[in-house]
Specification:
The chain is an alpha+beta fold and 162 residues long. It has five helices and six strands, in the order H-H-H-E-H-E-E-H-E-E-E.
């Protein structure tokens, strides 16, 4: 792979995304003095060339009235993608449900008042035919990562094998 040329605008984009990967394209464009369409194209180019390899969530230590923040990474039967997304949207506590490219098909963020609420969501998930596998990352109120990359694969009986 040849070296990727990065100019001053690309550096500004990267600094902005490192600071907050959810920064609005218009805000980055204003800082760089170019259009938001140009920023979009540059970010896609940086991703294509492997300069940007992904975006991560770093949980704050304080979760307010919530006990846990989780990411649920799902591998699904893609023939049921729309059904899966609609199911996830209906689950209380799930938000920011995204289609992924790579090892996982969907990632959903989950904020729950207690671990039992998360367990309820997992119980519903394991009954879905379209779930092939799930990986969880769970942070608790004290900021401690309690489960890291726990892979859960549904069995035919609707129970997870660990």
């Amino acid at each position: 792979m040849s070296a990727v040329e990065i100019d001053e605008i690309d550096v500004k984009i990267l600094k902005s995304l490192i600071k907050d990967s959810r920064t609005n394209l218009k805000e980055i464009a204003r800082e760089c003095g170019v259009s938001s369409n140009a920023i979009f194209k540059r970010i896609r180019n940086l991703e294509k060339n492997g300069v940007i390899t992904g975006y991560s969530l770093i949980a704050a230590r304080e979760l307010g009235n919530f006990e846990s923040l989780s990411t649920i990474w799902l591998t699904i039967d893609l023939a049921h993608e729309l059904e899966a997304v609609e199911f996830l949207k209906r689950q209380e506590g799930l938000f920011n449900i995204f289609r992924c490219v790579g090892r996982y098909d969907i990632v959903a963020y989950c904020l729950t008042k207690n671990i039992q609420k998360l367990e309820d969501i997992l119980q519903k998930l394991k009954k879905q035919e379209w779930v092939k596998a799930a990986v969880l990352n769970i942070w608790t109120q004290n900021g401690k990562l309690t489960l890291e990359n726990v892979e859960i694969t549904p069995t035919r009986e609707g129970k997870y094998a660990r």
